[in-house]
Amino acid sequence: MQEVQFIRCPVCGNTTRVQIRYNTELKNFPLFCPKCRQVSLINVTKFNMTVIKEPDA
Among 10, 27, 33, 56, which residue's beta carbon has the most beta carbons within 10 A? Predict the structure, then answer.
C-alpha cells in the first residue's frame, strides 16, 4: 500500500485538500489554501515541495 500525504500550505502551514503519493509529480500547480485563502504556485517531486516565487507585475 502506498503512502499518501496531504500537502500543507506554505503560507500558514495548514493542511489543504490535495493528497499526493510518493510517485506524484506536480509542476506549476496552483495550490489553494481554504484557511488563509491564498494561492501559491508549487512544484512537488517525491514528497519534496518547492514554492515558485513570481515577480510582482
Answer: 33
pLDDT tens per residue, range 44-57: 999 999 999 877 66
pTM of the model: 0.84
Q: Kindly tell me the burial class for residue 33, based on how many C-beta atoms sit within 10 Å of its own C-beta (0-12, 13-18, 19 or more).
A: buried
Q: Which residues in the chain belong to E strands, given as ranges?
A: 4-8, 15-21, 25-32, 39-45, 48-51
State the Cα–Cα distance between residues 39 and 35, nearest whole angstrom.
11
Phi, psi values for residue 49, rounded to 5°? -105, 135
